Amino acid sequence: MAVELGAIGAVAPASFRERTLSAPWPPLFVLAPAVLVGAAMLLPLGYLIWRTLGAGPEAWDLLARSHVFGTLFRTTVLAATVTGATIAIGVPLAWLTIRTDLPLRRLWAVLTVLPLVIPSYVGGMVVVAALRPKGLLQEILSGPFGVDRLPEIYGFPGAFLTLALLTYPYVLLSTRAALWNVDPALEEASRGLGRGAWTTFRRVTLPQLRPAIAAGALLVALYTLSDFGAVSLLRFDSFTRVIFLQYESAFNRTLAAASSLVLVALALGILLVEARARGRARYYRSGAGAARRPGVVRLGRWRWPALAFVVAVVALALAAPISVLGYWLVRGVQAGEPLRLVGEGALNSLYVSSLAAVATVLAALPVAILTVRYPSWVSSLLERVSYIGFALPGIAVALALVFFGARYATPVYQTLGLLVFAYVVLFLPVAVGALRASLQQVHPHVEEAARSLGRSPLRVFLTVTLPLMRWGILASAAGVFLITMKELPVTLILSPIGFKTLATSTWSAASAAFFAQAAAPALLLMLVSSVAVGLLMFREPQLRR
Amino acid sequence: MSEIAVRCLGLRKDYGAVRAVSGLDLSLERGHLLALLGPSGCGKTTALRLIAGFERPDGGTIEIGGRIVAGPGVALPPEKRRVGMVFQDYALFPHLTVAQNVAFGLSRGRERKARLEEVCSLVGLRGLESRYPHELSGGEQQRVALARALAPKPEVLLLDEPFSNLDASLRAQVRADVRLILRDAGTTTVFVTHDQDEALFMGDQVAVMNDGRVEQVAAPEELFHSPGSRFVAEFIGVADFLPATAQEDGLLTEIGLVPSANESRPGSRGEVMVRPDDIDIAPAADGRGRIVACTFLGTHLVYEVALPSGRRVRSMQPHTAAYAEGAAVEVRLVLGHPLIFFPKDTEE
């Protein structure tokens, strides 16, 4: 699922909407590839549906016997509680790091976002390594304090803790962008009407933040639903883990297909609820331009408790994982763990992620052009189809393509081609989002000027539009590249035999509890991911100055 | 050489149920400058975009340089029409320098460089060729847009509200410069504006548009002094209207019998247009007009006078004529100003 950098779209700067008087029919060099991409996007989901329906009542029997409702319940509870927790952490953090005189505010503004760089399976591994029975924490505590038992970490508590600490930055980022854009005049108007600071926050500021909080919460919920690494390592039976086990153990793959379909339905349900809740209200500032920035709120005696809260979050979500990984890295090196294997994984990761980035951007370009420049029912349909990746958990895409490949496309089965295709399906929304944003910055008048100077549509695209979109293209390629690096379930299931990446090496070492072996690739992944987060934060105006 | 460079016949464009352009007829001689003037939403920009080829007409034909570019079964794309377009926002290519922008529409070859230099000196851009658009002032950007559109020697140049992005102080100067450049280049030009001063200043001909059609095409003076419809009369300059009845010897109005500028059937009823410079007032104790308001315009004053019927007319007076509000005045017509009569029965 493409939630990882989806947050970029959520905080992207508002671009002007060009006036579209009428929609001319798009040229063939845009329409044909866009339709082809749309069809490709539908393939995995279509196949899952076809396969499940094809099995008839048997599928339903299998599902019922697999305690699907229990799984559904557990998954929903996990998604709901993690989402709630991330709002509870992310919203106050956003406010503290944007609007108050918190000590070292800028530093915290950067550090609180950084947990984004930790892939969920690394987070899960850290929690297991530190908190399992006879883990790091117990080792530390058993000496001086004689603690010989820690609360059970496997199951819900571990999964909840891990996911909440890893995903709150999504809520933080979207809320922060919205807070930054709140028109201070509205708050001043409320104060002028005799409302106090708290009432003003609750009745004026918070309602304006609601869409942004909802957008961040949506990302968190979808992330949680589709997460495979953390729940698997922490042995919590949410859908992804159950589906993976069904796929690995059963002879009949119909059950895995049917379960995947239920999971997709759950994700679609969440998207639908969010769309409904968002409603038609608009909360953006009226009028554009460089407006005043809101004033700084003095925390007074709440300064230190607030600081303690921020420090605690950063310690748990960032400092602790890095320390644990560092500890295991040192132990691994001391024990003579071969780092050569990491190099091979890194090269493979680099290679396949570059392929995915190029392929996804190429697929996304016609879709972005069509939806921005040629609005019609065809393009709005394609736009929706291109967002399928948002609702499709990686494991569902991977299984669909495994089944499809094994049956109908044996030549591509077990090849990098199929793997890259899966990445394209998953990450197309990320690429389309960034490309759309940059295309919207190119005013159609510029293209029309080029047309009137005697250039054909294709040449205008190549000589004017494309050069003007270059930063957007670069950003979307970088985005896809970096999420592909971290992606686990699709890589795990669709990689050709013997093809090890950083993600899969980390995973296989971590799931066998070889933490010393997992530490090096995990840290390398985080290092690479911090580039992505750096890019993401560079786009936040409040941090750029 | 009086050859038709642009001709539109029965041009029509609908957006859903909205008819943006409905039955537009225009023709423009080569080398002339036509201003398309009208209130916002009258379809003038759409008309321009139809000529340029950015929109497809739903009916009618467009002819450029004797060639049909749009019509039944014909729809030439913009790049084949030989039109130059200057956009309101200039739409300069931000990734190209001034020289690259201007040369964009020129084909590769020996003449390219010569033409580039020629056009740059024509619009006064020499020395700025290696700058990027964002390094230029608004007026300079405007000249780049103009040079870029002129460079390929288009059959017709189209300007969409070209001066609206400039400061008021700069606008008059740029306007005069552009007019001179276009005269020198001898380019056939259609330009769209909602500013009547601009239209009257720039245009050899002014086409007043209303509701998607052309109300009147005429030279600026003619448009001002003999508007073809009440809409034009109201839109161009300041005008008041008085009920009138046509007679053999003139028009009978509240302020007496006035000479008529146009033929009308005796006995027909309608309205006459009076401009502030048509009306003279003089203080008189038994005067039938009463001053209700006064606007100071620097060199002169405009008094608003209520007539016994309640109708109001405006009168332009030298700044030395100071009358108090509420003063009774005699209202009469300035000699030698025949008035335009709009009969009721031919009105819509």
- Supply the CATH superfamily name of the domain at 1-12 and 27-55 and 338-501 in chain A: MetI-like
**How much helicity do the residues of chain B have?**
10-25%
Oligomerization status of the protein chains? heterodimer
CATH architecture descriptor text of the domain at 1-12 and 27-55 and 338-501 in chain A: Orthogonal Bundle
Sequence of secondary-structure elements of chain B: EEEHEEEEHHHEHEHEEHHEEEEEEEEEE
State the low-pLDDT regions of chain B, or none.
none
What does this structure look like?
The complex is a heterodimer of chains A (545) and B (348). Chain A is an all-alpha fold. Chain A has a domain at 1-12 and 27-55 and 338-501: MetI-like (MetI-like fold). In chain A, 76% of the residues lie in helices and 0% in strands. In chain A, helix 15 packs across helix 24 (502-511). Chain B has eight helices and 21 strands. By secondary structure, chain B is of the alpha+beta class. Chain B folds into two domains: 4-234, P-loop containing nucleotide triphosphate hydrolases (Rossmann fold, 3-Layer(aba) Sandwich), CATH 3.40.50; 240-346, Nucleic acid-binding proteins (OB fold (Dihydrolipoamide Acetyltransferase, E2P)), CATH 2.40.50. Chains A and B meet through helix 20 and helix 21 of A and helix 1, strand 7 and helix 4 of B.
Can I get a quick summary?
Chain A has 545 residues and is an all-alpha fold.
What characteristics describe this protein?
heterodimer; A: 545 residues; mainly alpha; 26 helices; B: 348 residues; alpha+beta; Rossmann fold; OB fold (Dihydrolipoamide Acetyltransferase, E2P); 6-stranded mixed β-sheet; 5-stranded antiparallel β-sheet; elongated
